[in-house]
């Protein structure tokens, strides 16, 4: 039985100051939600410490516990992101310097907010002028004799005793992926750790920083050892790692951290809103349209091979030199076995520490890779493969610490560059699935698998982060929400694409996969301006590295692609037809947008809201997703909702879901924080598959999924959900419900989501 006796005045009275502003003990509570801010010190789009501080009242009202900042240390001149650090002993002057940082942190604390800072331990920038990076400048001058020589991961023999800088030949230092302007640091050296972390750890000790997010730990020689040192230096602080897990991979249980930055949950949440019935028709159409394989694995292998033999060749050559040294001879089979084993790695890296037995997960990972690699090697090379496997796992008589470590440090960038930055741009069967930490070959996620993931997080990693959008995602969350609808409308989608492809008299010059990505991008991110579309297409075709690339650009092809895109946007009739198709998707995309947001905010872990994504987020890959955010508009929307006014549009509805769920988490850590559980909620009836629900403490989150199919079936049709108790209020709409058995149609009468709380906590 459901009731709805609430008025706008009632709803306004329920949104009291106690709910909006955190209580006085908020600084001692466990993390309940974060808001990521991209700091930028350039004159264009500047957003520094003072700008962040000005958001304190808004972010406190939104409901987060932590402000999550991009890197804050001194970076290379003109840096737009801060990951190119040049001086670990200084806060960025371009962002405002130490005084502004201190004022910002003080203002945050006055509003009950804590600070989570992004840390970049893996590398430093090679800036112009070089003197901006004093340790590196000293190494460039003094060579191996420099007191800073041990800071950097340099192959001195390969460079003839000097550092081979960008533009001077093959770099002889470990890079961040294939970026020659970023040189790898040796955090395994205690002095390097101390000198590069002194300032940040000082800010932690002063109470100005409360948590640390570690960038790219997979680049380090010993991630576990690094984290142990960090946890010892910053005890009882919230430590997170930007670790991307693949498939059944789990974060190593002996890492002293709270969890990851949430890419694992991003894929699980997104897949929950993709209809598995759409896989075959969309795959068949994709293959017929592009001629590409039906499976992602073949494309992934070729892309990894390309990365190994092109962008990451210096790292591969260095590892091969180590292998030859250890084995004591050069055999052609060794190189091929090494390449095939790395290409076949199913995860970013295995975690083997020299001098220790390889953990079972590492043995399983490398054994699996060896099985896959052997299929691409002649019989006579299998013995060489076994040699490489034993060396990578530290087994047998010829163990070598450098090979063990460098194998892992090469494996990780090969996965990143070969898969996310190459294969993801070559195989776009469903672009919504081609996401950081995602698996394009996994079309959808069942509710059962989603709940199993959540139960594991609640048990093992209750303070891990969850996310839907980051500064690195290929497209923001609501682009994926729109594209997910296509899995429910494969026939209509194929007809639309066929119509648009043949609209004009000029045939498309685009490679088939890129053209298919173009149509998906237009529909998912509509409306989109010409500069944004051209910027995206340029990045997409260069990342694919098939007809053009960042290194070897085909100017004629690129111009032909961009001219075609301009013609599409200029064709009024085509755009009218496409806009009409997008409009048909709108009601279903709304369901996905709100559903995935509530699920992310209410599930186990600590939810992060990427800047601006409390409203609809339709940005594409960087730099599109790092543009300035209109916070004035967001303040106005939130203030209007807090006076009890009804949501006017999807932006309002998403902000309502975001703010009310974050506030509830902050007010009731016992429901959502460490020690709480994730309990699936059962639905019964003809449309039960279209409802996903779970209890967190005394709260229940309910969301609609697969809305096209729900509409085709005629709606909820008497479907009911068991919420276990009587007496509920929807924190989103104010509607009251009796229970314990609720009618789904009544629950979702106003919104396709519901956040139920006991009526007795109503103030």
TrEMBL record:
InterPro entries in the cross-refs: GH, GH13_cat_dom, Maltooligo_trehalose_synth_4, Trehalose_TreY
EC number(s) per entry: 5.4.99.15
Keyword Isomerase listed: yes
Residue ranges occupied by any Glycosyl hydrolase family 13 catalytic domain in the UniProt entry: 48-645
SUPFAM superfamilies, alphabetized: (Trans)glycosidases
Pfam families, per the entry: Alpha-amylase
GO molecular function annotation: (1,4)-alpha-D-glucan 1-alpha-D-glucosylmutase activity
UniProt entry keywords in alphabetical sequence: Isomerase
Protein name: Malto-oligosyltrehalose synthase
Protein's organism: Actinomadura chokoriensis
